[in-house]
Amino acid sequence: MRFEALRAALPRLLTTLAPHQAAAVRIGVAGTWGAYLLREWPNRRLLYGDRSPWSAELNDRLLAETHAFTALSWSDGRGWFEAVYLLALVSAAALALGWRTRASAVVFALTVLSLQNRNVLVGDGGDNLVHLLAIYLVFTRCGAVWSLDARRRARRPAPDPDAWSEPRALADALAAMLHNCAMLVIAVQVVLVYATAGWYKVQGARWQDGTAVHYPLHLASFTPWPGLSALLGGSLLVTFLLSYGTVLAQVGFPFALASRRLKNVLLVLMGAEHLAIAVVLGLPFFSMAMLSADAVFWPTGALVAVERALTGRRRKSR
Amino acid sequence: MRVWSKPARAVLTFAGAGLGAGTLAFLAALFLHVAPENALSREYRVELNAVVYPEFEQNWQLFAPDPLQREVTVFARVQTIADDGRITTRDWRSLTAGDLAAIRHDPAPSHLDQNLLRRAWDFYATTHPDGDGPSAGGSRGRLAEEYLKRIALQRIGFGGERVLQVQLRADTRAVAPPAWSDEQVDTSPHARELPWWPVQDEDRRGLS
Question: Domain of A302?
Answer without folding.
Answer: 15-150+162-310
